[in-house]
## 1
Amino acid sequence: MADEIAVLHKEVPEWKIVEYHHLTREFKFPDFASALAFVNKVGALAESEGHHPDIELGWGYARIKIFTHAVDGLSENDFIVAAKIDTFTR
């Protein structure tokens, strides 16, 4: 699985792999409203995908943590969701 994770990580290089258990990334914004708008997009994506990340929201930032609860670790779907989240910042 470590080899597969390394290959998948190339598609979302800004995300950090933590202990081969989850992906995490912090996104910066100019203000709270922008961070909240981003988090709302992530929430809508999570509902449509049926894959719900942990989200931390604060003034000017949002932190996202993704892993697959069913396997208590990383799966290919985590990387797919991360890539979709990345499109919200482009």
## 2
Amino acid sequence: MSSSPHPALRLGLDVALSALKAAAEPTRLRLLALLAEGELTVSDMTDILGQSQPRISRHLKLLVEAGLVERHREGAWAFFRLSDGAGHDAALRAALSRLDPADPALRRDRERLTEVRAAHQQAAARYFSANAERWDGVRGLHVSEAAVERAILAAVGDVRIETALDLGTGTGRMLELLSPRVGRAIGVDANRDMLALARANLARAGVTNAQIRQGDIFAPPVETSAFDLVVVHQVLHFLDDPARAVREAARALRPGGRLLIVDFAPHGIEELRERHAHRRLGFSSEAIAGWLAACGLDLVAHSNLPPPDGDGDKLTVSLWLARDPRIVSDALPSSSNLEVA
């Protein structure tokens, strides 16, 4: 018995022809294969394919017009990703999955993608190393850390947390802040200088229930379904693929566990890219909610902490609290400072 695609996945003749024509060109097909790996800028794709920026931009314009690719502007940068519109996403990814990964051109593109992403990570690592001793001072340029920490504690609540994970632990401040409420905690960071600073800070604060591990946030050295609480504090804006980091955080959660994301709301301060290695200029609630839903998590609360009135040099900090719904818990811990989503 033959099966028909779900109505939401069917494409009209004109839409299908437009999409097929747009994809039926070697460079554009290579661009689609790259974007299947995650969001990229025009500059990234220019470096990977070795073609001029005007040429890459023309190809991307055709792909956007055909509905195969979406464009998202952040300040002076634009990020491109595969469309997740009705019908396009499933059909396009199914077609791309049939490409031979051993094809020489596609293999070279993936190798160059790895190199480009490594270069971004190295730039961020150099920034972290240069700022390791004054990292909390850099954060102090933004909304009050004291206010953020009060909001974090309110979101976490007074319920005892047996196991916690801090991804991108940096100075270890989150481990120190949460230590009275946690049985056992692990902080993961890729940068050795930051790890040394975190260990020194925890020792000075007398924190004995936390350990530090070196590891990649995209492949943290932790077990699946092992933590009651995962915190991702001021990390996502440094990453090429923040959605992937959210997936890893969700992987680490136990059923009923909670994920707390703290980062900036959308802004337009380009200087943060140039001087502080930021890859993303904040995140909308819609973007975060979409990533959480894709991981099977429920967004249960969200809050914004704006800077003082008239202080244009500071940024709004946002908190998102999500829960793994695989079990039903009695009640959420107190989140009086958060708005119910």
## 3
Amino acid sequence: AYFIRLGGCDVGCVWCDVKESWDADAHPRQAIPELVAAASEYPGRNVVITGGEPLMHNCGPLTKALQTAGFQTWIETSGAHPLSGNWDWICVSPKKFKAPLPEVLAHADELKIIVFNESDFKWAEEHAALVPATTRLYLQPEWSRAARMTPALIDYVKANPRWQVSLQTHKYLDIP
């Protein structure tokens, strides 16, 4: 997949690994045709829009242009802002710092919970009850605590097999 990271985030996770994305004004604006052209340089046809918090922006024109160019559009969002755009896949990764909107959770194809503490398993189950039964459920250890939390996460998934483990593969492969 080709990733487009939109600047700006008002969620403010203390453990965020891309805090540099929070200030939208700190990043140069790019025209939508430039973004589509950049994605088109690669053979993959999936584009993941992430952030920051991408739904702070009106994603409609971007998803329309990408889909017109033959791309599937995927989003990873906290769900704290209303949906905009036309999405082929919606990953909601809710955060405790700003609650997800029920109307976004209702459209989740994927629910990804970042596990920082053992109490996050209960929080994950509470949010799993708010998404459609067909939603894929993932637990991902917070990167700075992965060594500590991954064993507990694996044990939890073994005992609760509707959940799957998600890892930040790009970090293990040292891909920025």
